Amino acid sequence: MTDVRVVALCGSLGEDSVTRIALERVLEAADRAGAETELIDLRTWELPTFDPDRDRETAGDAEQLAVRLQRADTIVLGSPMYHGSYSSPLKTALDYCGFEEFEETTVGLLAVSGGAFPVTALEHMRSVCRALNAWVIPHEAAIPDSHSALEDGEFVDSKLDERVRTLGRRTVQYATIEPDPDSFESDQNVGAEGK
């Protein structure tokens, strides 16, 4: 595929983030599949807590973030699992976005956990994407036991490594898929559009 742009949004602020390393692997696979890629590392972005009374243009880097996501054919959301959900930096970033950034856009999901599989974090991200009329790739990457998942920056388990890289290939494969009609939730969600 050509002219496909894949943007990964890293919801981890940790210095040695497994989420960030995994997203880099996703983007490497997408690059090999012919896509232009970008990693948005939220550690380097100024995004104040979302305030609906504040215009996005005056909220730090929120407008620039929205522009970058609008240009993407596929967005990959990556987050560590905190208290059974995804991270607050990712939540803040998503709160500054709306239908313009996500509607009919392909989305890939990746979640990392220090313990068992981060299923609920993936479910919560999928629910947000459904409300924004995004099309979420059925293949998702879940990384459990993150403290032992990597050795010298590489995945210890080759099957897990392949699962993460498969997500990268799918981001390109499904970048231009025709999504189904709007979900019921999308009609009820006014979100942060225009804020």
Automatic annotation (TrEMBL):
Record-linked InterPro entries: Flavoprotein-like_sf (IPR029039), FMN_Rdtase-like_dom (IPR005025), NAD(P)H-dep_reductase (IPR050712)
MF (Gene Ontology): FMN binding; oxidoreductase activity
SUPFAM superfamilies assigned: Flavoproteins
Needed co-factor(s): [4Fe-4S] cluster
Annotated NADPH-dependent FMN reductase-like domain residues: 5-146
One Pfam family named in its UniProt record: FMN_red
A Gene Ontology cellular-component term: cytosol
UniProt region (Disordered), positions on chain: 175-195
Family membership noted in the UniProt record: Belongs to the SsuE family. Isf subfamily.
Record's protein name: NADPH-dependent oxidoreductase
Protein source organism: Natrarchaeobius chitinivorans
Native organism taxonomy: Archaea, Methanobacteriati, Methanobacteriota, Stenosarchaea group, Halobacteria
